[in-house]
Amino acid sequence: MEKTRKSGTTSPRLSREESQARTRERLIETATRLFVGQGYGGTSIRDIAEQAGYSQGAFYSNFESKESLLLEMLRRHMAGEAAHLATLSERAGTSLETVLDDLEAWASTLDQDINWSMLSIELQMQAQRSTTFAVAYRAVWQQHRDALAVWLAQLFAAHGLQPPVGIEALAASFMALAHGLALQRASTGTEVSGRMMVVLLRGLLAMARPA
Amino acid sequence: MEKTRKSGTTSPRLSREESQARTRERLIETATRLFVGQGYGGTSIRDIAEQAGYSQGAFYSNFESKESLLLEMLRRHMAGEAAHLATLSERAGTSLETVLDDLEAWASTLDQDINWSMLSIELQMQAQRSTTFAVAYRAVWQQHRDALAVWLAQLFAAHGLQPPVGIEALAASFMALAHGLALQRASTGTEVSGRMMVVLLRGLLAMARPA
Amino acid sequence: MEKTRKSGTTSPRLSREESQARTRERLIETATRLFVGQGYGGTSIRDIAEQAGYSQGAFYSNFESKESLLLEMLRRHMAGEAAHLATLSERAGTSLETVLDDLEAWASTLDQDINWSMLSIELQMQAQRSTTFAVAYRAVWQQHRDALAVWLAQLFAAHGLQPPVGIEALAASFMALAHGLALQRASTGTEVSGRMMVVLLRGLLAMARPA
Amino acid sequence: MEKTRKSGTTSPRLSREESQARTRERLIETATRLFVGQGYGGTSIRDIAEQAGYSQGAFYSNFESKESLLLEMLRRHMAGEAAHLATLSERAGTSLETVLDDLEAWASTLDQDINWSMLSIELQMQAQRSTTFAVAYRAVWQQHRDALAVWLAQLFAAHGLQPPVGIEALAASFMALAHGLALQRASTGTEVSGRMMVVLLRGLLAMARPA
DNA sequence: GATGAATGAGAGTTCATTCAT
DNA sequence: AATGAATGAACTCTCATTCAT
User: Which domains does chain C have, with CATH numbers?
Assistant: First the structure.
């Protein structure tokens, strides 16, 4: 499979692997768009393949099943979020204002990337129904929550404060709020910006006692 | 199925309307249970009718379509929530502790009545997909948000405080949080209790400036 | 379901049940024809429904699955064969010539009813692949073999002869021969009549020792 | 898959033709195994290629189509059986016991080589469906029957007996019985050994009149 | 000669909905 | 009002086969 792939010098045409990677990429893009717009259950493989410009068979050359495509999306989702959180954590020791700006920036990313938010909710709904998927989803979710918890812990510690509730419950709540807002935006069109998260965090800091 | 068969001659009280109301009621109950467990898309009318002990035709004698059943549910959901909010509002003027206890009580209702929470999310997902439904959903949602906003306004006013952000955004955020937590509970099994809402509200009060 | 079915006096139209029975019958007839001609695997439900003049859905209103249709066929096959064997057994005590004529008559039934023979082979092939089906098939097959064995035992006893091999093995062999001849006829067009069975039985009687 | 990759420089003996022959051989072996276990229709080319350690394309480099592979199998089947019959015929003039032992040996070969038996039935089923295939099958089948008929004729002649029915019908019947028994064994698990053939032949000899 | 991604047709099955009874 | 057989469209998925590499 990877034997003769030195690809010469310029390669005016796509090699086999490149071509398949492209197909796969297009299918994922199309599927993401459709899942967001019509939901996982409301999107057929026919739709995905057709809109991506391929046959249904092409889908099955690239993914084992509809659910395995969703798992692939979950993996990518995870990778993206992990990167965000890493950035957040890196700067957790600096001034409070900087840190809260970082949070707001992250939150507004969620706001803008409505796709990911809705997809994330699709993922959660699917997790409720498929055991296979639930296991995978839970693992990813815990990783996120833990990373966020670490960041929050650093934040409170840096200001000599004691969090008013368990740090993991706090992290979970922020994630819940982000998802809830995304759902609300999608279903009612209301724009309650990610700023709310900053406001709430400020409130928590305001009420916290010294450690 | 064989319950009202003998009523022909002797039971003048279970009139046709009452009998149909009963059918309707049972269909709604069964449908709620199934939607919560398997989702709107994952539940067939055959399932609903069968489990309720009727035929598919009986369903269509009572509802125009699958979606119109969901609209009926939405109406009932609304009525229930309105009642809750009314209670909450009634006592908004009393001591802070009482009021926060009320909030926590309401929040824990959401916690316990996982059925309604999940159904509520199903409703939101459906609102994203069906224009008909979206219009109805938005109206109901705004009523809720406004009632909650009024309650929050009373709360801040009673303590001579100025809310740190628009009162409607605040109300919307609390609803988003409630839904996000329900979704989280369903998909990850995590129990971050409705207490978080009280904690956050305390934080907001702690950071608020005098009016 | 059976409540108001007194059917009056003449019923110019088909009642609900009659109408469905008709549909079911037509589907089975069509399916038999197609299975015989193109095999079980080679016949699609689409084909069956279309050729019978119904929708695919109608098929599923009448049968749970493709295999359950085959099971229904097996049941009918069994009933038919059982009737044949009963007739055979009834007259087992009469003169040898009569009895052998009966056997030949039965064998030539197999000959002529090529449909059943080929279907029977389809059933056997399916039994090799589906566990569900194998269990059902084995039960039916054993019943047949036992009935045939009883008949053969009566035959040998009536002439004071001792069968040269176990009576059940003998019965099984006759069934195998009947199926093998059917298969041969279908695949090569060769007409080796069911008379062979009579010839072989005569041979067995000729070589048998007194009991 | 990785076996012949190093042969580039040092192995002048595994020529292209030999290498291809090897591929072909492995595909046939694997296909035989799979057809027997899952049937012709139940076996995909993907399965065959994968299990043999090749790509689907390799299959099509070696065979025109799925059916042409089956034709190749038929050819080999024929060759093998022809060899058996030749051995049988060679010794047809010796004592009756020897000859019947030979028959039983052949029959038990069929018994043991359940693979060939089931494949043979697959071939017959396919012959019923494909005209191309049917023509080829019929030719092979007639050759077999004729060879067997010659052997039977020699047998009767050697004992100065006159066969009770046409010698070709007799041969066809024995083949039918062999196939029927194989089918029975596969579908019901019943072991009615090939000894039955010997018993029946003895019966025929017992009832035969002098020539 | 061998690869395997992609095709296109078709498989079995499900489902919201209709309508004669 | 209630029945449930029948519809017709859509579903996920499989497969023999093709063809650029």
Answer: 15-63 (1.10.10.60), 66-210 (1.10.357.10)
Mean pLDDT confidence for D159-167: 93
CA proximity to A110, closest of A42, A169, A191:
A191
**Can you state the percent helix, strand and coil of chain C, rounding each to 5?**
75, 0, 25
Q: Give residue A11's pLDDT band: very low, low, confident or very high (50, 70, 90).
A: very low
Residue A142 CA to residue C73 CA, distance in Å, equals: 54
Render each residue's pLDDT in chain B as its tens digit; 211 residues.
Answer: 444 444 444 455 566 677 788 999 999 999 999 988 888 888 999 999 999 999 999 999 999 999 999 999 988 888 887 888 788 788 777 788 888 888 888 777 765 566 677 778 888 888 877 888 888 888 888 988 998 899 899 889 988 999 999 999 999 999 899 888 888 888 888 877 678 888 999 999 999 999 8
Mean pLDDT over residues C29-53, rounded? 92
More confident residue, D14 or A117: A117
> Hey, of A104, A165, A183, A205, which one would you mutate to test binding to chain B, going by the most B CBs within 10 A of its CB?
A183
Q: How far is CA B70 from CA A187, B15, B28, B122, B179, in A?
A: 15, 26, 9, 9, 18
Chains that touch A (3 or more CB pairs under 8 A): B
Q: What whole-number distance in Å separates Cα of residue C173 and Cα of residue C167? A: 10
Q: Is residue A79's pLDDT more than 90?
A: no
User: Nucleotide E19: nearest residue by CA–C1'?
Assistant: B57
Which range (A143-147, C54-58, D108-112, D203-207) has the least confidence?
A: D108-112
Closest chain A CA to residue B174? A177
Chains that touch D (3 or more CB pairs under 8 A): C
Residues contacting D92, CB < 8 A, separation 6+ = D99, D151, D154, D155, D158
Residue C52 is predicted with a pLDDT of: 96
Contacts of B186 in chain A (CB under 8 A): 124, 128
Q: Scan for tokens 């609900």, then name that residue.
A: C16
Residue that has been written with the tokens 């929040």 in this structure: B107
In sign, the C-alpha dihedral spanning A67, A68, A73, A78 is positive
| CA–CA distance, A101 with A87 (Å, rounded to integer) | 12
Kindly tell me if the per-residue pLDDT of C65 is higher than 60: yes
Nearest to D176 by CA among C181, C170, C200: C181
Of A38, A184, A206, the CB nearest to B129: A38
**What confidence score (pLDDT) does residue D110 get?**
63
Q: What is the pLDDT of residue B6?
A: 43
Q: Which residues pair with B210 in a beta bridge?
A: B161
CB B146 within 8 Å of CB B168: yes
Nearest CA to CA, how far is B157 from chain A (Å)?
Answer: 18
Q: How far is it, in rounded angstroms, from Cα C45 to Cα D78?
A: 36
Q: How many Cβ atoms sit within 10 Å of the Cβ of residue D186?
A: 20
Beta-carbon contacts of D21 under 8 Å, excluding residues fewer than 6 positions away, are: none
- 8 Å CB contact of A190 and B202: no
Amino acid C68 CA to nucleotide E6 C1' distance, rounded Å? 36
Q: Which of B111, B138, B161, B177 to mutate to test the interface with A (most CBs of A within 10 A)?
A: B177
Which nucleotide across the nucleic acid strands is nearest to A41, CA versus C1'? Answer: F11
To the nearest 10 degrees (0 to 180), the angle between helices C131-158 and C66-90 is 10
| Alpha-carbon distances, residue D162 vs C3, C194, D208, D211 (angstroms) | 69, 21, 6, 5
Which residues of chain B lie closer than 8 angstroms to A138, CB-CB? 187-189
Q: Which residues of A touch B204 (CB under 8 A)?
A: 199-200, 203
Contacts of D139 (CB under 8 A, 6+ apart): none
Q: How many Å does it take to go from CA A139 to C1' E7?
A: 37
In this prediction, residue C31 has a pLDDT band, given cuts at 50, 70 and 90, of very high
